[in-house]
Design a protein that fits this description.
Elements (H helix, E strand, L loop, with lengths): L4 H20 L47 H26 L13 H24 L7 H20 L2
Length: 163
């Protein structure tokens, strides 16, 4: 059976909630549109000297040391992984509650148990991807992509069997 329109809208909303902050952090240079009148003065150019400002105390740590590990791609890949895990838990729980999915192991038959197992695994995969990317591996995203693919496959399976 197909997922309902509400479920699809919820999934799309979750993806946008994860993707919008990542897209908003893009560092595109501002474009100055030429004014119609040439008499308008141009803004001053930035100075060639770099200003040294210290980071606030809350930003000092491993992430605030100038690492470019947690960039847009890292946040997007891991955001999609967490989103797919949440969608998978919700669809699996609905499938089990409707009586269609009964192949779940006994300890994993509640929403809390599925979240309690799935989200720490996602966190571990995120840490693994962070360390792989920081050490320069080209395929740092493979663990998160594998978890996302598994969640999508099982989520689609559960969505098809919801009564």
């Amino acid at each position: 059976m197909k997922p309902s329109r509400t479920q699809l809208l919820l999934l799309i909303a979750c993806v946008f909630v994860i993707a919008v902050p990542v897209v908003a952090q893009t560092s595109t240079p501002p474009v100055i549109v030429a004014a119609a009148s040439p008499s308008m003065p141009l803004p001053d150019a930035p100075s060639a000297q770099q200003r040294r400002t210290s980071a606030p105390p809350s930003a000092i740590g491993p992430i605030g040391q100038g690492d470019v590990v947690m960039d847009q791609h890292f946040m997007l890949v891991n955001g999609l992984m967490f989103t797919s895990s949440i969608a998978n838990v919700e669809l699996t729980t609905r499938c089990f509650n409707s009586g269609a999915c009964s192949a779940l192991p006994g300890p994993l038959r509640s929403r809390g148990a599925l979240y309690g197992m799935g989200l720490p695994i996602d966190l571990g995969v995120t840490v693994l991807g962070y360390h792989l990317k920081r050490s320069g591996h080209r395929w740092w995203f493979v663990p998160a992509a594998a978890v996302t693919a598994g969640n999508v496959v099982y989520g689609i399976h559960a969505a098809r069997h919801i009564r």
